[in-house]
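--- STAGE predict ---
source: upstream dedup step, 1 unique chain passed
mode: sequence only
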Amino acid sequence: MKLTGPFSQILTLSGIPLKGAVKDEQLEIITDGGIVTADGKIIKTGSFEKLRNEFPNAEIEEIKGKNVLLPGFIDSHTHICFGGKRAKDFAMRLNGKTYLEIAESGGGIWSSVTNTRNETEEQLFQSTFERAERLIKNGITTIEIKSGYGLSPEHEIKILKVINRVKDQSKATIVPTFLGAHMKPRDFEGTNLEYLQLLVNEVFPIIKSENLAKRIDIFTEKSAFSIEESRAYLQKAKENGFEITVHADQFTPGASVMAVEFGAMSADHLEFSDENDIRALSGSDTVATALPGASIGLGMQYAPARKLLDSGACLAIASDWNPGSAPMGDLLTQASILATFEKLSMAEVLSGITFRSAKALNLTDRGVLEIGKKADFISFPTDDFRDIIYNQGQLKPNQVWKRGVQIS
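--- STAGE serialize ---
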């Protein structure tokens, strides 16, 4: 058993609802606090001095200076297993080229597919592991990683094996997601439905037998797969026992309604969600995940986060770190910028990158500092939690704990 502290402030995020708007006044703040952990779980939080008296035999992990303690951040949507880069795409975008024009010139997702296919498993592992390490230093203790840059049974399985190797060796929790349905590959001669059926027939059985992922994702958009095509694929995913998430409403509305129909864990992107999508998400348990990094990378509107919260939705915020549309990969910076444009409270931002993002991954054992939850927490070198969002990502965590053990 270990007592860690004292901290100037501990924000437990306890008592905040999973859905809807949140005011900063709802935050539970423990001053001069401590946290008791054992066997990777939280035993108790409270006054450091009272905890020291209550647990006299606990090992003391003394924290010096001014520090604020928070639950570890959770990035519920990343594409960090990829080869190559797409700086050329970004330069073209700055010069006014459209997404379609960039793709037609050899850029876009297919460029990343080509680069990723050309890399060995070892090369992909090294780069993905390094990106995960960077996320850990930024306070991310749980990381979702998608496949999707292989776009053939062989290469998608290769990527999933790489992600699982990172899962085995990273100090963070890694959650693999199968996104073979990112787009129909250019070298596949059949229809969209035939490609999706190929994934169902050839990849689903391997994923299940080798336990490579529990989650299935699809990019539902005019440039990828239609709502009708996605519906057929997601039905097969459900029949095979997979959890579902959907790339929804990035350029056109409607996919969030479909995601809710299928009981998806989350609908992600949402830049073009309309009133029907917002109503569907707000009336369901499907998490609405905003990806401000993609809006910044593409120079487009943000997801209607304020409307979603005021309508009663569960809003998560994730980085979408990928080589094309969201190359920054800094969750806290992106979330802070989203807050300024969508007028989100600090409590809403912090909820969106902790326990509400955990819900998007169907994880109920983390994201708040409560008795029995995983002892994943991070500290920032300040005595006022408001400095974290105020500095828009430039104030970085100085310590990161996973299961009660300091890892950074």
